[in-house]
Design a protein that fits this description.
The complex is a heterodimer of chains A (97) and B (391).
Chain A (H helix, E strand, L loop, with lengths): L35 E5 L9 H5 L5 E3 L5 E3 L9 H5 L5 E5 L3
Chain B lengths: L3 E5 H11 L4 E4 L6 H12 L6 E4 L3 H13 L4 E5 L1 H6 L1 H7 L6 E7 L13 H5 L6 E4 L3 H16 L7 E6 L7 E5 L3 H7 L23 H33 L6 E4 L6 E5 L3 H14 L4 E6 L1 E3 L3 H7 L5 E6 L10 H11 L6 E6 L9 H17 L6 E2 L5
Parallel strand pairs in B: 2-3, 2-4, 4-5, 5-7, 6-7, 10-11, 10-13, 13-14, 14-15
Antiparallel strand pairs in B: 1-8, 6-12, 9-11
Helix pairs in contact in B: 1-2, 1-7, 3-5, 7-9, 10-13
The chains are: A alpha+beta (97), B alpha/beta (391).
Chain lengths: 97, 391
């Protein structure tokens, strides 16, 4: 297993920081940018999937019960899903320390 | 037998590029670089040079095409000047940290405004921190030799950095000089095939110039810094090898009567030869004066500079550009920082000369030396002096 970017020294970089394996962007935790996170009241959800269509990060997937939910590893907390969710399932709440 | 050919320096430089047998030339014409790329286009059109000549629509595109070409593992050349270098600036910054071994000739010319087509080093200073290796030529022969060395340096596995060869616009590009051309077979031997270690290749895909988040960006910058620092010993080695093969030797700091001289003039570029004539005359008049010339601007040869000026009392540094509102001459500023930590250091006098093509003559240099000695003895309120400005 290759080192994560946080563990790599300058010596571990390929020449010119060339990326030689696919999928490196998936390792990047854009969720650390978030100041608000989505919360869900699934009792109102009709599983229309609009939130997943609108999500600019493409990080909303269906869970085991078929409800749409953001992957917090990637979710930047932009709130677009909450804005577009017309049955008002999604509510953004402040991230607390 | 050595044959000298009388030839315009731009044409000679283009012929040196041909000797290096590049795969791709992507360039846009701009005064005073035009003859270089015109002649290369001609060589390709006539079938004398088997290379792809890409007549791009701007310098930004020229350097972008060079990135792609070098990334594919092709030996790549371009040339520009002044506004052209400014227009390609964004992409010039990209080439070095991507470690692409591009060679670029820069026919130094003043940056606008006001418009000037004539030589100074303001364009050179605009790319100072791009992380390219930068060699400064002083005459036509040095252009020819260093273009060939530049490919060898850039493509060396221990270096893999782009290299600029600076030559003064008009003062060099448009003059006819006697040039010794290296023989093709010897150049072929000196310059093996370019083998970029991780080229673009559909069978082994890679991503280049990718996004680097804060967690890894500093490491990429340090890798670049270490690479350019370490390149200096390879530059020495290749210059030595060039000397063995072709008989002409280059050094990061070149000396002219400088050993143990009390007063030194430091120059960069073609004015150096005029300064040398002034040195000859002043020495004939009994003055203890010498000259040092900077051949390698990046990586900056701190050690060689300190060594070359260690016995001097006064070091007069000539600049052909101004860092406005700052220390004045950018070269003098670096020289001062090179000596700041030293216990014994010369008094450094900074002079800005020859802006936008104004000549600095032999008698001008003598005047500068006289004034500099006064400044060194009595001090000056100015951070730097500008020569010949009408007040």
């Amino acid at each position: 297993m290759a080192k994560s970017e946080g563990e790599m020294t300058w010596k571990d970089l390929e020449i010119g920081a060339i990326v030689v394996a696919p999928g490196s962007a998936r390792q990047y935790e854009s969720g650390t940018w978030r100041s608000q996170r989505p919360t869900y009241d699934f009792t109102r959800c009709i599983k229309c999937g609009l939130c997943a269509l609108y999500c600019p990060e493409g990080c909303i997937n269906q869970n085991e019960d078929g409800y749409f939910e953001a992957d917090l590893f990637y979710c930047k907390g932009c709130g677009v899903c909450a804005r577009e969710c017309w049955p008002r399932v999604i509510k953004m709440v402040e991230e607390v320390e | 037998m050595v044959t000298r050919v009388g030839i315009e320096v731009s044409i000679a430089l283009a012929d040196a590029v041909k000797l290096a047998n590049p795969d791709v030339v992507a360039a846009y014409p701009i005064t005073p670089q035009t003859h270089i790329v015109e002649h290369l286009a001609e060589l390709v059109a006539n079938g004398e040079l088997d290379a792809e000549y890409i007549p791009v629509e701007s310098e930004h595109s020229a350097m972008s095409a060079c990135l792609g070409s070098a990334a594919a593992g092709a030996r790549t050349f371009t040339a520009t000047a002044s506004q052209g270098l400014a227009l390609m600036n964004e992409v010039v910054y990209v080439a070095a940290p991507m470690r692409l071994p591009i060679v670029m000739a820069v026919a130094n010319r003043a940056l606008s405004a006001p418009l000037s087509i004539w030589c100074d080093h303001s364009d050179m200073m605009s790319v100072r921190d791009t992380g390219w290796i930068q060699i400064i030529a002083e005459n036509g022969q040095q252009c020819v030799d260093n273009i060939i060395c530049a490919f060898r340096i850039a493509e060396d596995r221990r270096v893999l950095l782009p290299v600029m060869v600076h030559l003064d616009g008009f003062n060099l590009t448009h003059v006819i000089e006697p040039i010794i051309f290296p023989e093709q077979e010897k150049v072929d031997k000196f310059l093996p095939r370019n083998r970029f270690p991780l080229p673009l290749n559909p069978d082994k895909p890679v991503a280049m110039g990718d996004f680097a988040p804060p967690v890894i960006f500093t490491e990429t910058k340090w890798a670049h810094e270490v690479a350019i620092r370490n390149s200096q010993k390879v530059v020495h080695e290749i210059w030595n090898e060039y000397h063995t093969a072709f008989g002409r030797q280059y050094h990061p700091v070149e000396k002219y009567h400088s050993d143990s001289a009390k007063v030194l003039i430091m120059t960069m570029g073609a004015v150096g030869e005029t300064a040398s004539v002034a040195i000859d005359e002043m020495r004939a008049e009994g003055m203890d004066i010498g000259q040092i010339r900077l051949r390698l601007w990046r990586p900056f040869p701190f050690k060689e500079l300190r060594e070359a000026a260690k016995d001097a009392d006064i070091l007069i540094v000539m600049d052909r550009s101004i860092s406005y509102g700052g220390p004045g001459g950018p070269v003098a500023s670096e020289v001062k920082s090179a000596f700041y930590s030293q216990a014994k250091k010369p008094k450094i006098v900074s002079y800005v000369i020859s802006l936008g093509g104004r000549d600095t003559t032999v008698s001008d240099f003598k005047g500068i030396v006289k004034k500099s000695i006064e400044i060194a003895e009595k001090g000056s309120r100015n951070e730097y002096e500008i020569y010949g400005v009408r007040e």
